[in-house]
Amino acid sequence: STAADGRGCLAQLLAGFDGGCSVASMHCIAQELIHTAGVFACREPPSGSPLLLEKQGAQTDGAKMACWPLSHIAEKPTVVYAQEHLKTPGLDEGKFLASFGQYVLTPAIFAILREKATCHFTEALDAMRQQEGLNGVLIEGCRWDLGNIRTYTQA
Prior knowledge:
alpha+beta, 6 helices
């Protein structure tokens, strides 16, 4: 899937990678779907974020990808947990930042995965976030969960 300017999802993600801090692709989901996804929180969204600018009626520059410094990660949280720990300022009520499923990671992830051989990927990602930071990039385009037969057939 592509953005309105023709850039694919991976190109958008790479535009947010500065070579130093890992980045995770994100999209907004309704709270009814948070039990199906890894969910991120950001305490201070970037002021130039296309999502926030669109809400304010401003024009966005599709070439620049705003990086959201992520402050919390949870895999398939409950609504109660998400409301308490995963709300991001500036998003509409009941909306959350969720994993789009693509990442550009620094080599630090491999040491973490070796050290915590039995942990879930989201736990390793959160450990890396705590060690060196993790940014999120909002992806413009469609996402299909290929582990879900309904969305797999739509893809």
